[in-house]
Design a protein that fits this description.
- With about 800 residues, the chain is an alpha/beta fold.
- Helices cover about 50% and strands about 15% of the residues.
- It is built from 26 helices and 23 strands.
- An eight-stranded mixed beta sheet has the order 14-13-12-11-10-9-22-23, covered by helices on one side.
- Helix 8 crosses helix 17, helix 12 runs antiparallel to helix 13 and helix 14 crosses helix 15.
- The longest helix has about 35 residues.
- The relative contact order is 0.07.
Length: about 800
């Protein structure tokens, strides 16, 4: 069966061009003009040579250039609205501003950040009208959320939530986001958002339904109750870090929130019900469109839902017109339309993976089913082929998110996927019924809980299995290698006909060469690292992206300071270093980039030290560590202890907790120094968490720091919010910066790097060097080893 790629190829060209050029905003307008010129010239040539064999090629060039021109023109126009010069100047000068924004995510107690559309900003006496997407980092303590997660307090917090579509007043400072990011600015609020106007009626009904359903789901036991709001309405706020880890490790994270596939399920049910009642096609299509719109509003327009909704609308339009429905052209047209409306979707991982998964299903599921049906029944072959097709299509992009190949992705999805539409449909029915028929709605909630619990159970099962993934090269090399192996493998397996036999053998040979090359490169690199990696390290900075996870070792005792954003990455680091027990866990504060990986060490920890919690989410995390068997203490300045031959001291937060807000400013700050009986050489170290300028100054004034330290863990990933006096006081030999590559915050900043250079501190960065190990030397110096030397 032939595949119609006439629109898919131009859409791909427009997508790639936009994804690249979004990183260079000044080039958007000139590039769009060039694209339109190419389209015009190619059209003229096609008209002149309409009988020539080049005509089909010229037609493709015309459509591809026009598609690129359309999306790039949209990006150029919107970029002007998103980034006014006055606002960029206010952000670069760190000016205090007040602003008005419309929320497009729920805001309120316990929510650390949310997205919104900035409509106006006041800088001094100047008001700037703008239409800019932003991420608001909330002033968490201003919500005054309780630290005890009782049902009554949860209900009270739900009542305080700010619904989607609300107009809010903000105050704080702005930071310009990285070019190409889906938001234009990051807004750091100094106070809680103040509601100026509630959501419009056409959004408020959905807010009320979401709150009612989320409250009902809280009464359901276990992970099934936590997962159900995500499956049904896209509300993942109740998903614990342990469940989130299990879903990611088992390649089921796309089920954590409602997926675009559920649009098709909802439309199919409406069409089937209309057909059973004898309703005409046009009326059924109209009812389906209304239902589809309500569904998108209720579950919120996430990228995968938008993609599926536009595809569904196109399919319904084709049904009314009597035109044939072809999956790939519909997918291409839907993608192009959405890119024209929001060009920044070109770099949104959720949108990219949704389109790739759908394309994989359309192109690969049938051929793979035919292939597998040679050996197994056709029904079972289809069950295997469907998740495999989606996984193969998405895997090259997934390498950018996690440089590994999951081994259990297909069987996990085979078991979990059938339960997802059941949970979604039952959850939606319960959501709609609860306000009017609470008892019936609660019964249906319990029915929806069954498939939801099944999915959570499958996730935990496959997470617990050994060797869940294969390490893979990161970055562009890993993406290219994965794509090449997948393409060669598919060609070797699916090629047909006598002419293709020689090419199949060539593809199989190239596939073998690629696999052997990978094994040689990866194996050789692992061998190099294992041979050169020092075993006498005292400080190890894990490469876990934008976050902190640093280990201290002394006399076989291990301390872990923060757990990074991702338990999978933390587990890989601990496995490489052979860490199976953690004597002291320090969670400096509760931001996700410092505690997101905590589930990876549950059951491994003897004692944990934490800072002051801000809300019930923080307390719930501390409780999970306590339930895993660890002693958990909230610590303040003045506490001391011993780790092997090292003595540690807590320098911050202060004893009077009301003098500092929970969060960055209350980061647990530790100092390590050799005890009197240290015989193996003990490095001195200072760990600053995410302290900013003012708390750094207060911490410095409140403590008598060592005159010189060997290693400083630089505060807040190298942000500009630093107090140079701290670094001048300690004159550290090495400054470890735990930071993610190409992060949106511009960390580490030139100002911080200049400060370190001025005081003679050598910067060691995980974004450029990977894992960093620091070992003491007998002569009193130190040796620094990194995963990526140079």
């Amino acid at each position: 069966m032939s595949v119609d790629l006439r629109l898919a190829l131009p859409t791909g060209v427009a997508w790639i061009a936009t994804a690249i050029l979004l990183s260079f905003p000044p080039a958007l307008l000139p590039s769009s003009i060039v694209a339109w010129l190419i389209a015009g010239l190619a059209m003229a040539a096609a008209i002149l040579f309409r009988t020539h064999y080049f005509s089909p090629l010229l037609t493709v060039v015309v459509v591809a250039a026009a598609a690129a021109g359309l999306v790039l023109s949209s990006a150029a126009v919107q970029n002007v609205q998103r980034n006014p010069a006055a606002l960029r100047e206010a952000a670069s000068a760190d000016r205090f501003v007040t602003a008005v924004a419309v929320t497009n995510q729920v805001a309120g107690p316990g929510i650390a950040h949310f997205s919104a559309i900035l409509t106006s900003v006041t800088v001094g006496k100047e008001r700037i009208d703008v239409a800019a997407p932003i991420t608001v980092f909330a002033a968490r303590t201003s919500y005054a959320a309780s630290s005890v997660a009782s049902p009554a307090e949860k209900a009270a917090q739900s009542a305080q939530q700010i619904g989607i579509g609300s107009t809010v007043h903000l105050s704080g400072t702005l930071t310009t986001a990285a070019p190409g990011d889906d938001v234009a600015f990051l807004f750091f609020a100094s106070a809680a958002p103040r509601i100026e106007a509630g959501p419009p009626w056409f959004l408020d009904w959905a807010n009320q339904l979401r709150v009612t359903f989320a409250d009902a789901a809280q009464g359901l036991p276990g992970d099934g109750g936590d997962l159900l709001p995500g499956l049904a309405i896209g509300d993942t706020s109740a998903v614990s870090s342990q469940l989130d880890t299990a879903m990611k490790a088992s390649s089921l994270s796309h089920l954590t929130a409602v997926s675009g596939a559920n649009c098709a399920v909802v439309i199919a049910l409406v069409m089937a019900a209309g057909g059973a009642l004898g309703v005409g096609r046009r009326l059924r299509v109209a009812a389906s469109l209304v239902t589809l719109l309500g569904f998108v509003v209720l579950v919120t327009p996430q990228p995968s839902v938008l993609r599926a909704a536009v595809m569904a609308a196109l399919v319904l339009a084709a049904m009314v017109s009597g035109r044939p429905i072809r999956g790939v052209p519909v997918l291409a047209l839907a993608s192009l339309a959405l890119l024209a409306v929001d060009p920044w979707l070109a770099r949104n991982y959720g949108f990219v993976l949704s389109v790739l998964a759908t394309g994989g299903l359309l192109l690969l599921s049938r051929p793979l089913t035919v292939l597998f049906s040679r050996w197994i029944p056709t029904a079972l072959a289809a069950v295997i082929a469907i998740p495999l097709a989606a996984q193969l299509a998405c895997q090259p992009v997934l390498i950018l998110l996690n440089a590994s190949i999951p081994l259990y992705a297909v069987p996990a999805n085979m078991l979990a996927e059938p339960a997802a539409p059941v949970a979604t449909v039952l959850g939606l029915v319960a959501c709609v019924l609860l306000p009017w028929f609470p008892a019936l709605g609660q019964v249906i909630c319990w029915l929806a809980w069954l498939p939801s619990s099944w999915i959570a159970g499958v996730a935990h099962l496959f997470e617990s299995l050994p060797a869940s993934s294969i390490p893979w090269p990161a970055g562009a090399v890993g993406v290219f290698l994965a794509a090449a192996i997948i393409v060669l493998g598919l060609f070797a397996a699916l090629g047909r006909g006598a002419r293709a036999a020689r090419w199949r053998r060539a593809a199989a040979f190239a596939l073998a060469i690629a696999l052997v090359s990978y094994l040689g490169i990866a194996g050789g690199e692992r061998l190099r690292q294992s041979i050169s990696r020092p075993q006498d390290w005292q400080i190890a900075a894990c490469d876990i992206g934008q976050g902190d996870a640093v280990l201290v070792k002394s006399a076989d005792q291990i301390a872990l300071i923060d757990t990074g954003p991702d338990p999978v990455l933390l587990s890989q680091c601990l496995e490489i270093l052979g860490i199976t027990r953690i004597n002291l866990l320090v969670l400096t504060h509760y931001d996700l980039d410092h505690v997101g990986g905590t589930s990876a060490v549950l059951g491994m920890v003897d004692r944990a030290m934490i800072g002051p919690p801000a809300d019930f989410h923080d307390t719930r995390l501390a409780d999970s560590v306590r339930r895993s068997g660890a002693r958990v203490d909230q610590v303040t300045r003045g506490e001391t202890g011993v780790l092997g031959e090292l003595r540690w001291s807590v320098l911050w937060p202060p004893v009077r907790s009301n003098t500092v807000e929970p969060g960055n400013d209350a980061s647990v700050t530790l100092e390590f120094a050799g005890a009197a009986d240290c015989i193996d050489g003990c490095l001195t170290a200072l760990f600053l968490g995410d302290l900013g300028n003012e708390p750094q100054a207060r911490m410095l004034a409140a403590n008598r720091l060592l005159g010189h330290v060997d290693v400083v863990k630089v505060a807040h990933h190298g942000s500009a919010d630093q107090n140079p006096s701290v670094y001048e006081k300690i004159t550290a030999t090495v400054g470890v910066i735990s930071v993610g590559a190409h992060n949106r915050y511009g960390h580490p900043t030139d100002a911080l790097l200049n400060t370190l250079a001025r005081v003679g501190t050598v910067a060691e960065r995980t974004d450029k060097q990977g894992m960093i190990l620091i070992s003491p030397r007998p002569d009193g110096g130190m040796r620094v080893w990194s995963e990526r030397p140079g």
